[in-house]
């Protein structure tokens, strides 16, 4: 039976969310029920059945549950944006606390300028966006082997959690003014929560776990899972000696074999989702599973260090316990020898060689980060000719960024390209490299280039967007730096197609970015040409106007055109009558009647040029 088909699922699959959230009375559930009935389908009045239909709709049509829906990535981004704090919700007490911390750390009395406040708020928003997005990307992916009712339960739970309280061993409640990011996603802990809930009536759980499972309190369950993993975590860097244990492929989801595998991983905070018996069963059904355990203090092989999952005898995945589930450097020889024994293991030979070379560079640069490197080493480090392969699940080995952040990047690149000045041409070459976050890096370090053309600007934005959608990267653009480089010619080039207009709109998604852009151009009141239509200019100008504060908009009103009537009313309500009166040609013709109506309704006398 397909447990995602809620029209056919057993009632107990959704009993928890129905009981906890009283879902059958929720407006969104009633809306779905009405929609289904309008199509002539018969629905029973049983609450669990009604909720089952609702969850079925989520599974089939919602981007937070299904990665294959239309524009899923864009829609998940919008969901994440809807869950971040707004600037006006960040309280003054937050900034006062920052001052207090700075003083206690010996930095004296710091001055919190308006710019610093805006910058700090942008950081808070970015952290919240990306932390929520990690949950959304995972729960909507094929890697999350959970039924929809549990994903719904998880979203409802994690979205209410704030910062973790180490003393109380639980998360603080999230409210509209919470500045903390969403909880860190730990797949192993989430898999344990699913296991506890799924077995909440089982005598195999102890009294504490049964109580937690039956409470349906996500905060307590997830906190307990994290604490359990941390409490049982064993110092693993002391030895590499150990043994490989093979878990044979099963004919179907064998609960006994799965339990043996998952129990051997539980409590070590590996981050591997195989810690859940349900997930382990699915993976063993697909192929053999190998785990390397190092010896514990009793000389027993119990500490998991390496996992190799196969698909019908061929290596499908290799994971370690380093950052992002990457391989510990001390384990390279051990995993290399094992991969030589399994079909498909040769694919990982480059990863082993690259990780050894990166480890050697890292060790050499610890004492002197600016030490001279050969041209070959520099090209390797900056991934000019080919990517650095690793075993990690996400992105690249974090040591690469740690090394390059400490080096004089401009000097390194000048040596690689044999030049004294980095130009637009070099930026184009870098966009062809294999560094996964090269677009984000170029934007953040754009000042080291003497020039950036409109062609490069367009490619930079397009390539970043395409890569983010394809690979699920969180591209954290420092758009304020990019806006400084934008001039009118670049802007016109970048908005020539509707697709690129959408990208430009993302770049001016804040008042700070919009202000940089508007100050970087002489005027957007420009003559028409074959590629730029009045509609193009109208879209851009109104996007800018919506982001700018009323006083900045009033100061730059003369640069804009084709503005909607709502923009004029916004300015008039803010007391900027003179700016509107002096720049009537910046508005659409239809705005004139709205302006006159505003004067009439407010009892004010309009000037002759408005009559």
Structure overview:
It is a single chain. The chain has helices at 12-21, 27-38, 47-61, 72-82, 92-104, 114-139, 148-158, 187-198, 207-215, 218-231, 255-265, 277-286, 332-339, 349-367, 375-381, 398-406, 409-417, 424-430, 438-444, 454-471, 479-485, 488-494, 498-507, 511-519, 534-547, 550-555, 565-573, 577-582, 591-602; strands at 161-165, 170-173, 242-247, 289-295, 301-311, 314-319. The model is unreliable at 1-12, 104-108, 471-481, 495-499 and 525-531 (pLDDT under 50). The strands form 2 sheets. The chain has a 4-stranded antiparallel sheet with strand order 3-4-5-6, covered by helices on one side. A two-stranded antiparallel sheet has the order 1-2. Helix 8 (187-198) packs across helix 10 and helix 23 packs parallel to helix 25. The chain is built from 29 helices and 6 strands. With 611 residues, it is of the alpha+beta class. Among the domains are: 12-230, no CATH class; 231-342, no CATH class; 523-611, no CATH class. Strand 5 and strand 6 (314-319) form a beta hairpin. It is globular.
